[in-house]
């Protein structure tokens, strides 16, 4: 399905690209940490042919991978991924020209790896969560995810492992193992950040103002409610439990509303990592 243009999504994608590019340019690329992706391919090839800039190699690699993507997935893959991958390649190239960093800004290789991967992972998660990708091996990961239902972070780990092993031959075993460790961290960062973006809150409420609370949730928050019937173990009286699933912001609104109309209401909440159906997208 073609991804429709949405200004909020577009801004989030661009912010994700900037964060991703910063993590690569400041920490990973200067330290020769080929932690997977087209960046990893570019670092390996740049070492072999140093006259070709990393940004240009990334651009060429993305074009090749997009040919494979459109052949395997089809033209409906969407223009967002093309835009994102080209924007990332261009941004890396601009950074190389404007603020060149030829050596690591800190000597500790592990610190470069950890900070680079954390920053890169947040940017990638923002992009992937908007239903697109930054191109490169993300495309391969999307294919694996589509046909196996494996989480996107773990799919990316499988796609990037071969690049990390190649880096071991080019930059030495130590750097290769660092890179392999990096893509393992990256897969967990991406899955964790995406899970955080998609977390919703299930709220159960017992209140004497059950009708008012239900009306507030349905009319003001535009969320559905389910009324469950129960009996109080201590009072032996019938209770009606209001059950709903909302965002964090909506939960705060519910809590504030209850403070005003029924301070004695009993509430319990639980975090839900995936919600599908009416009011929530598939």
TrEMBL record:
Ranges where the DUF2179 domain occurs: 223-277
Record's keyword annotation contains Lipid biosynthesis: no
Keywords, sorted A to Z: Cell membrane, Membrane, Transmembrane, Transmembrane helix
Topology in membrane: Multi-pass membrane protein
GO cellular component: plasma membrane
Location of the protein in the cell: Cell membrane
Bilayer-crossing regions: 7-27, 33-49, 56-74, 80-99, 111-128, 156-181
Domain of life: Bacteria
Lineage, broadest ranks: Bacteria, Bacillati, Bacillota, Clostridia, Lachnospirales
Location (main, coarse): membrane
Full protein name: YitT family protein
CDD domains per the UniProt record, alphabetical: YitT_C
PANTHER family: UPF0750 MEMBRANE PROTEIN YITE (PTHR33545:SF9), UPF0750 MEMBRANE PROTEIN YITT-RELATED (PTHR33545)
